Amino acid sequence: MLMAELKAVVEDIESQVGKPRRSNVPRGGDLFVYPTDENQQALLIELKQAAGRSIKADLPKTSSSKKGVIFGVPIHESEEDLLQELASQGVTKVERFHKGTGETRTALETVALYFEKKIPDRVTIVAMSFTVKPYLPTPFLCKNCWRLGHTPKYCPNTAKRCKNCGEEHDDTTHCSTKCVNCSSKDHQADSKLCPAFKKMQAIIKLAVEEDISIRDARFKYESSYSAVTRKDLLPTRSPSPTASSSQEFSLLKSKVEKLQEELKEIKESSIKGLYSNYKKLNSDLEGTKRRVHDIETTFMSRFDNLEQLIIARLPVVTQPNNDESLFPPLPSDEDTDSQRSNQSFILVRKGHGKKKEGSSPQAKRGRKNNK
């Protein structure tokens, strides 16, 4: 497209939808127009003609804040049937992901959904509910020059370059590994571990989360990243000793205050726990004391009743006179010996049989005397 034709197209577009934020023409000839708001974006999408030319406006693939992904959708469900079920939920387009090419191309259970507004948390297909996650496109990687950020269609290089070293040579030439995106000798240009690839992923994620263009996301990412790493990446003038001491003092002061707050929280939580345990132990101790007191009271009451019962059953004893003793004195040893000497003992031998009455010698003598 010639400059005059491009200028006429841009002016016609501005007359129909208003002046956009900016516009440019990257490699490939497409016109990129950045709207000022969502209303102007909707008007741009509805444009069909500008400066006598037929045009078609689409959202770029990187503008994915309105594109979500659902997983586990049955393969036999067609895109038309899914769109018919999801149209009432704000879905405008359905795309099923596929694996392989040509005859080996097979459908997957992953489906992309385009929404009129921001994506919801969930969508429902018949009786099945699916979680909708933001779609994060893979960074563009040119298979011609193996650089990030564009596709072979818009590659400025005509000759194919080596993926391993980034130079132009045939497949039989031996080369050393060197990534063309980060100059690292540890991986090839298509490695997912490449720092440049990870950076592009972070920029795309930032664009999706904040609903901004890739260019704005790149500028914001690099601004925040450079602010954090400038000290390590760029040579800076060393601060004066006074300023350095002041900064270190402020940093130490903030750390001390933070530690004091943490200690205070730990102390409060510990004391609170100890106090609650003390209250519980004190309550248990009071309960134990009450139970012991009740047992002691019951035991003493029963002991008093037993004592009264024993006293009531004892015989009544008459009070002796003054000169009489209730209990006689114990005999002395001499009295005991005299009593033993005065006692007579009769030894009786037990016979084998029963003796007849009057058969003893004493009985016989008695009978003679009587005669």
Low-pLDDT runs: 231-241, 343-357
Compute the gyration radius: what is it?
A: 57 Å
Strand content: 5-15%
Helix content class:
40-55%
- SS field, number of helical segments: 8
Largest sheet: 4 strands, antiparallel
What key phrases describe this protein's structure?
single chain, 371 residues, alpha+beta, Alpha-Beta Plaits, four-stranded antiparallel β-sheet, two-stranded antiparallel ribbon, 12% strand, elongated
Q: Could you characterize the architecture of this molecule?
A:
The protein is α+β, with helices and mostly antiparallel strands and 371 residues long. Among the domains are: 3-54, no CATH class; 67-134, Alpha-Beta Plaits, CATH 3.30.70; 152-232, no CATH class. Helices cover 43% and strands 12% of the residues. It contains eight helices and ten strands. The chain has helices spanning 3-17, 38-46, 79-86, 195-210, 214-233, 241-313, 333-342, 361-370; strands at 22-24, 32-34, 49-50, 53-54, 67-70, 91-99, 106-115, 122-125, 128-131, 133-134. The strands form four sheets. It has a four-stranded antiparallel β-sheet with strand order 6-7-5-10, covered by helices on one side. A two-stranded antiparallel ribbon has the order 1-2. Helix 4 crosses helix 5. The longest helix has 73 residues, at 241-313. The relative contact order is 0.05. Mean pLDDT is 78; it is low at 231-241 and 343-357.
